[in-house]
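FORM 7B: Structural annotation worksheet

SECTION A. Query
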Amino acid sequence: MDTGADHLVERRVTRQVHVGSVAIGGGAPVSVQSMTTTKTADVEGTLAQIYELAAAGADLVRCTCNEAAAAEGLAQIVPRSPVPVIADIHFHVEMALAALDAGVQGLRLNPGNLRKEEEIKLVAREAKDRGVPIRIGVNAGSLHPALYERFGGATPEALVESARMELAYFQEVDFDDVKISVKASSVPVMIAAYRLASATFDHPLHLGVTEAGPPPAGLLKGTAGIGTLLAEGIGDTIRYSLTADPAEEARAGRQLLEALGLRERRDLDLIACPSCGRAEVDVIAVATEAQHALEGRGLPLQVAVMGCVVNGPGEARHADLGIAAGKRKGHLFIRGKIVRVVPEGEMVAALVEEAERLVAEGVEARLAAADAGAERAAAEDREALLAARGDDANQASVRIERIRNRLNP
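SECTION B. Predicted structure
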């Protein structure tokens, strides 16, 4: 099925780094990252959250390393984690070195907080010796005061200059296993900063709108910034920064990449019509019930819930599976072909059953198993609905005639 990837701008070419087993940049798939909210010293609690994040779609997980107990926790977490672990470092060079000793697969350094040139170079040398990449994590909220004054605020130019200065320190010790982020809580500033970074560096870029806040506003801001840049071919890893369960971040990141055709679908993509005068059911209620019944089953399908049989199967013919309501019945279809007609009360159950069979048996087998007469019954229902409400239920022809009379008296 067409994923839409061919319609996006070609992805920017970057050098490639590896965070453990995950390749970043250089044509590798865009990866999803999230961050634990547990105390890293709580080994079992942190591991439980990492497994939850991985199940939700995270390819990489970042953990804070802000104290000795956190570094010791990382030494126990890293070998048991299902995904590579990145240590988040802010103020103390000792914590960066301790995290490397713990065996982390990546570091994130905030140049606004870790400012001493020799300490930065020391971390870069140690990371180079271990083959561990570093993300230069610039943040508008913690920009170096000198840069803030020089540029008159946390401007896109100031953010990129902060990354450039840090990169220059790394280059002095011949370390270039680097990815870069230039995050801001303002979506326009974030977009402009990443566009400038993309034109300035050939290193992979980690995208994010920092401090986006709780859903739904946080999801909207994150999607506006990250989605815009991905559609322009910019970005190699992404993270939603939500004031919420971090699993929501991972899930949103994965869903965004799937929606843009940048990752293969691995779970449900439910689409539904917005409803109209022809709708024979409460589309919102049925779609919500179907979402709850199908999600989390690991069924990589696009499933459609359509309110009527007149246009439903045709409009959603691209979907792997769908249901259209008509005359207290549900018309179940696969790739636009009606395969079964079920009572209205069994529509969601039929969707779940058919979805599982579709994944297990394949499209051709399920089309071959279509009920004889299902297409005929669906056609009869469509004709009956059109007879009752007319081909022009929304009276478009009357409106068009009125417009023509007004414009051409």
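SECTION C. Observations
The domain at 269-389 is CATH 3.30.413.10 (Sulfite Reductase Hemoprotein; domain 1). The longest strand covers residues 337-343.

SECTION D. Sign-off
Analyst initials: ____
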